[in-house]
TrEMBL record:
It is a multi-pass membrane protein. Residues 3-77, 90-163 form the Glycine transporter domain. Belongs to the UPF0126 family. Keywords: Cell membrane, Membrane, Transmembrane, Transmembrane helix. Its main location: membrane. The keyword NAD does not apply. Pfam families: Gly_transporter (PF03458). This is Trimeric intracellular cation channel family protein. The keyword Oxidoreductase does not apply. It comes from the Bacteria.
């Protein structure tokens, strides 16, 4: 199940990268590059930090194939059908949720530490989107007022608690993914953001 979920997250994030490239009117090469970098960026950093060599998409090139096909498929789709840009928001939220759970699981398997696993979950979830936004010339979502990394963090902590109290694995995954997805979309729907630090300059 986790492997299928991992491939689904890879495809989903590749779609967000391709859509972001489309908004910047990139050619098919740019679409594929942005799609692949978005799909594998977070997992690559996670594996490097954890010392997993070779990284996941080198040891199993199915990930790169799935990301490429998803990006090319998105390129072809948007040439013939008008895809609502809201699709990017939903796909990004789904990718964030799935990759957070996958990253947590990988981190826990390697280290056995819940705190490190939570960090690896958030890293896997947000880094791909950060790279996508930087390459597309946008301010990364994690640096904006929007609730993004904090949604990933909440889901990762919830997943850690369910894992610690031995909730059934399938239900723990489903609940964690839906929690992250819901928090992210609810924050966008009602324009919820974290408190800001405001410093008054001396005159």
């Amino acid at each position: 199940m986790m492997y299928i979920l991992d491939l689904l997250g890879t495809a989903t994030f590749a779609v967000t990268g391709a859509l972001a490239a489309g908004r910047k009117r990139m050619d098919i090469f740019g679409v594929v590059v942005l799609g692949c970098v978005t799909a594998i960026g977070g997992g690559t950093l996670r594996d490097v930090i954890l010392g997993n060599h070779p990284v996941f998409w080198i040891s199993n090139n199915v990930y790169l194939l799935v990301a490429t096909l998803a990006a090319v498929g998105t390129f072809l789709l948007v040439r013939y059908w008008r895809v609502p840009m809201r699709t990017l928001v939903y796909a990004d939220a789904a990718g964030l949720a799935i990759f957070t759970v996958i990253g947590f699981q990988r981190g826990l398997e390697v280290t056995g530490s819940y705190s490190i696993a939570v960090v690896m979950g958030v890293t896997t979830g947000v880094v791909g989107g950060m790279i996508r936004d930087v390459l597309a010339g946008e301010i990364p979502l994690i640096l904006r007022r929007e609730i993004y990394a904090s949604a990933s963090l909440c889901g990762a902590i919830l997943f850690a608690l369910m894992h610690y109290f031995q909730f059934p694995g399938v239900w723990a995954v489903i609940v964690a993914v839906l929690t992250i997805f819901t928090i992210r979309l609810a924050a966008l729907r009602w324009n919820v953001s974290l408190p800001l630090l405001r410093l008054e300059e001396e005159r």
